[in-house]
Design goal:
Helix content is 23%, strand content 26%. It contains 9 helices and 18 strands. Strands 3, 5, 6, 9, 10, 17 and 18 form a 7-stranded mixed sheet that branches. It has a 6-stranded parallel sheet with strand order 13-12-11-14-15-16, with helices on both faces. Helix 3 crosses helix 4 and helix 3 packs across helix 8. The chain binds zinc ion. The site of zinc ion has 5 residues, from loops. The site of zinc ion (ZN) has 5 residues, from loops.
Length: 335
Amino acid sequence: MRAMILPKIVSLAEVDDPLQLVDLPIPDPDQDEVLIRVSACGVCHTELDEIEGRTMPAKFPIVLGHEVVGKIEALGKRVSRFRKGDRIGVGWIHQSTGGVDENLSADFRATGRDTNGGYAEYMKVSEGYAYFIPDTFSDVQAAPLLCAGAIGYRALKLANIRDGDLLGLTGFGGSAHLVLQLAQYMYPNSEVYVFARDQATRDFALEQGAVWAGDTSQRSPEALDAIIDTTPAWKPLVEALINLRPAGRLVVNAIRKEDADKDYLLNLSYHEHLWMEKEIKSVANITHQDINEFLPIAAAIPIKSEVTCYKLEEANKALLELKYNTVRGAKVLLI
Ligand SMILES: [Zn+2]
């Protein structure tokens, strides 16, 4: 099968083709696993963290990709929930405890980091971590829901807002533009304020229904009850804290932060940014329960992902465009 592999950790500032197209054997599903013929795989910011070693793959070479959609091609003997031909998705957790806090388990294994993922024609997964895709969505529309959408759902739950509360989003990429649609559905009386560093992204946020969009360092016209940070940087986190009302909550929706602007943390003033019972909460990994709850809600809305498509062999181009923020919305490989 054709697959894009990551042979080793590299710096994307020095290397613009970290992945290589190779031919690999089709994986053989174990007794409780299904083999998927992959049709679409989303490109997630976490792939950049894997390529640059901020979250280290368990083996090399590794096939990245954890927003996977495809049809079941073969079944292990003990699989009972699925049949050949079913259309399913796979997310970030490839294997864990199955409990409600499985995303916090030290033993959880990540798709496309600890085991091969969806930047390939085939992949396998245990049936407990595969999800039926609602008919509402095409394969391409469904792919970003498996991570960007589902982690947004988890972040919104952790934001702990009530309908009518004011919500901020700092960063407005693949995940946040889905969170905005989710927030409009779950909290119809809540206004959404967006912070983004470039005008095109702010315009996109206003088109999508944000009531206000400003630069990362701007003050919002109202103090906000909660803000979700989907950026890899520190400045948006520090600036978001100022925009919270007393007892407001900042939810950091990122697996890793990058170090490029870490010095910005020195601007943190206890009095301005943290005092008045403000909280910071990080999002860990998405549970299978999050995905099972989120997909029917996404179908009811129905959420529409802004998607740019690439061929499998263009994965490096998609990753660089993600890193340098040159294309808005989500990115999906067609396989
Ligand atoms: Zn992801």
